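chain below, 252 aa
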Amino acid sequence: MKDLSCDEVMERVPALVIGDLTPLEQQEISLHTAICAECAQEIDACCVLSETLDSLAESESIQARAVAALPGLRDRLLAALPGRAAYDRLDSPVGPLWVVVSERGLCRVAFGGTEEETVEWAGRVGMEPVRDPGAVRPYAEELDEYFAGRRRAFDLPVDLSAVSAFARRVLEATARIPFGRLASYRDIARAIGKPGATRAVGNALGDNPVPIIVPCHRIVRSNGAIGGYTGGLDIKWRLLTLEGASLPVGGQ
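prediction:
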C-alpha cells in the first residue's frame, strides 16, 4: 500500500467525493488523513461543498441532468462496496496454489503460503474473502488441464483491477506470449511502447497476481538467462519444461 503525499491526496479528492476511487485508493487516503489533520479538514470541506451542490440540484433544470446521471452514480456506488473474493486451495505438480476469484474473474494465484495470507490479501485490496470451492472449480479445472498437458491457453476471465495501469499493460502484453515460446523483459518493454522501462517491467512481472495464467514464466533476460520468478526458479523451470520451452545455449 502506497504512502501518499499531501499533494497526491488532494489530486484524488474529486474522485473520492464522487466515489470513483478503488477500495485500495480509499484505504491509502484514510491512512494519510489519520495522521494529517490538514488534509482531513480539506476533504471534509469538499464533502460539505458537494452536499451543498447536491441540495441546489433540486431546481428543475439541474434536477433533469441529475436524474439522467443516476444510473452511472448507482454503478459507482455499487463498485465502491466491498466485492466478494471466493478462494480455495488447490494441489498441483508445482505445489499448493491458493486461488482467488472475484466477481470479475481470477484475481490471484499464490504459490504456497497460508489461508491466513490469502484472507489478508483479499482484505487489503478491499474484498470480502469467502472460502468457496464451487466458485473456484472452473478455474481449478483449467489449471488441471494445463498441468496435464491438455490446455495451452486459458479461457476464463482475469481480473486485474488491483494492479496499476502500467502493470496492466505489462501483464496484458505478457498474456499474448504463446505457449512454449519465450520473450525478454526488453521485448515486453518495447511491446508496450516503453523501451527504456525494462526494470519497471521486471518489477511489474514480479508482482504478477495471476502467474501461470498470465505466463510471466515465459519471460527471460535478453542474454538468454532464465531471470527471476516470484514462485522460485525451480517452479519456473518446471513450467518451461512442461511447455517444452528451452533457453538458448548458455542461457542457464
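The chain is about 50% helix and 10% strand. The longest helix spans residues 60-80.
thats it, cya
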